[in-house]
Design brief:
heterodimer; A: mainly alpha; MetI-like fold; two-stranded antiparallel ribbon; 1% strand; B: mainly alpha; 13 helices; globular
Chain lengths: 312, 279
């Protein structure tokens, strides 16, 4: 009904003034100019620029670079630290993403029930997402402090550890700390998406299942899980992409240390560009990151299409 | 029997929920409680939860000893300018792409969403070199321009949902009544879209306020530093950091965000889930 009306009205407008429509189209095109400029100068150009610089021998303060072929890439790949960077990046990305997805889904399921003050609980659980990383890393560092830290106090008082641990100067514990901070900050993103998806499930499905005598477990497995799988796939993709490129949390907590134990590929870009002033090498690491992200994205889109097809 | 079992399970799940809420929110509570402690209490071991004599000493010291005020003003300038520029650009873009059928419109729309995924760490070197060429380093203007990289696609995603959900027939009615396109847009559509515009502005402001990497690289000079970089730099400058003062700084930075969060609480689903929507 409504559509017919709309079409009817459009016809009236078209009949009434053809010139006006042409004019309107032009307005539409003019309105797009600023956004196209943003895309061209703030997205396309920088990416191409980064690609060019990655093939140049160039310091951060050079006005132009010298073409150097694949020299930078060779240096990056041959650097004995490279395997460590890849290993750290993989540990960092996979563990943060998996923890965020599992915890986020769990919390979303808890929040999807009816209980008193549910909105307050939901609000409080989402707050970390808006806390600036600078603030969260500060307070976590204070809590993980080896001398006066609250966490050391709690762990020693319940006898899990005997003496306070210096978390940030121990390689694998430092990685654990940055992972915890990341998970604390970004799990709300998973919660909110899964929760939205849970609330979109048709209640009649559950009613029908109950009439058929399904157990709560069966309901969960046959209705709830299949309904949230599409959003879980998208959210996993986004979290993987964002966690992989995340720089701030690590930099503000450990600066990649101790002994490069938390140096991931993005941290390596920063170190090369802004501590060693080598724009060429840093750009080649950046391009490697970009290519890895493209591959991850393509892989997930493939997986997503397959699961969507499988679910009908 | 069965209902009793259900009740017990429900009760346990409720307790679990509130325990999780407590753990999640605790760092922020701890941040605040530590910021109002006496200097000695901050370093007490075993740690003290509540101060015996709460004090604003840390806050006073923060504004006295550091350039905190300057950072604060810089952050406000950058955030406000970016939000205004972003919103104007996004509103006209969304209007154009949702109300007209132009050649390539759908492709553009998708492109505008996808660019949100471009990693900042890949952009940082070319952007630095570009800003250096234009002599815009240590100039807040460079940050305002650069922030468009992520605020534009993010706000576009949100505004497309808002403006797209407004029925075009109200503008068409105005057009039939003889209003011009621009007139219908400004007088009919914009007033209806105000709630969406406000919410999107707030979400965009949160992104700008919290940004660290670009601010660190593009405006490192003391007088143009923004809050995030300024606060992160406090530890380096004061040597041995005074945790009380650092926590006070963190509270001042986080407070506007918490206020924003409360304002947009109801729209939080659409704001935080942006990006997960299919492009």
């Amino acid at each position: 009904m409504l559509n017919v009306d709309k079409v009817g009205m459009e016809k009236i407008i078209i009949k009434s003034n053809v010139n006006k429509i042409d004019n309107d189209r032009n307005i539409a095109k003019i309105l797009l100019i600023p956004s196209i400029l943003i895309i061209l100068f703030l997205d396309m150009y920088p990416i191409i620029f980064a690609l060019i610089v990655s093939f140049q021998k160039r310091s951060l303060f050079d006005i132009s670079g010298i073409f150097a072929g694949i020299r930078n890439y060779k240096i990056v790949f041959r650097d004995p630290i490279f395997p460590t960077l890849v290993k750290n990046s993989i540990i960092w990305t996979i563990s943060t993403t998996i923890l965020e997805i599992i915890l986020g889904t769990g919390v979303a399921l808890l929040l999807n029930r009816n209980f008193k003050f549910r909105n307050i609980a939901r609000g409080l659980l989402l707050v970390p997402y808006v806390v600036p990383v600078v603030c969260s890393t500060l307070v976590w560092k204070y809590m993980f402090n080896d001398i006066i830290g609250l966490i050391n106090y709690l762990l020693t008082s319940i006898h899990i550890i005997r003496n306070p641990i210096s978390f940030l100067s121990h390689p694998s514990l430092a990685m654990l700390v940055v992972i915890i901070i990341n998970v604390w900050t970004y799990t709300p993103f998973v919660v909110i998406n899964v929760l939205a998806s849970l609330q979109n499930i048709n209640v009649e499905l559950y009613e029908a299942a109950r009439i058929d005598g399904a157990s709560p477990w069966q309901e969960f497995r046959r209705i709830t899980i299949p309904s949230i799988i599409p959003i879980l796939v998208i959210v996993t993709l986004l979290r993987t992409v964002w966690n992989f490129q995340k720089f701030e949390i690590i930099w503000l907590t450990t600066q990649g240390g101790p002994l490069n134990a938390t140096t991931t590929l993005p941290v390596w870009v920063y170190v090369n560009a802004f501590l060693r002033y080598d724009a060429g090498i840093a750009s080649s690491v950046a391009v490697i990151i970009f290519i890895i992200l493209l591959l991850i994205a393509m892989l997930y889109i493939k997986v997503f299409e397959t699961t969507e097809r499988a679910l009908g | 029997m069965n209902t009793l079992k259900r009740k017990v399970i429900h009760f346990i799940l409720n307790i679990m929920t509130w325990v999780i809420v407590f753990i999640v929110i605790f760092p922020l509570v701890w941040m605040f409680l530590s910021s109002i402690k006496q200097p000695g209490e901050v370093y007490a071991y075993p740690p003290i939860l509540f101060s015996r004599r709460p004090t604003l000493l840390n806050y006073i010291e923060l504004f006295k000893v550091t350039n905190f005020e300057k950072y604060f003003i810089n952050s406000i300038i950058v955030t406000l300018s970016t939000v205004v520029i972003t919103m104007i650009t996004v509103i006209i873009t969304t209007y154009s792409l949702t109300r007209f059928r132009i050649w390539g419109g759908n492709v553009l729309s998708r492109l505008y969403v996808i660019i949100y995924l471009i990693p900042h760490i890949v952009m940082i070197i070319p952007i630095f070199l570009m800003m250096k060429t234009f002599h815009l380093l240590n100039n807040l203007f460079s940050l305002i321009i650069t922030y468009l990289i992520f605020t534009f696609p993010y706000s576009y995603l949100l505004m497309r949902a808002y403006i797209g959900s407004i029925d075009p027939s109200i503008e068409e009615a105005a057009l039939i009544d003889g209003a011009s396109r621009i007139g219908a847009f400004v007088k009919v559509l914009l007033p209806v879209a105000v709630p969406g515009i406000v919410a999107t502005s707030i979400f965009t402001a949160i992104l700008c306020w919290n940004e660290y990497l670009f601010a660190l690289v593009l405006v490192p000079q003391e007088n143009v530093k923004t809050l995030t970089v300024g606060v992160a730099g406090l530890t380096e400058k004061t040597g041995i950091p005074s945790w009380g003062m650092l926590m006070a700084a963190a509270v001042v930075v986080v407070l506007p965000m918490i206020i924003f969060f409360v304002i947009v609480q109801r729209k939080i689903v659409i704001g935080l889930s942006a990006g997960a929507v299919k492009g």
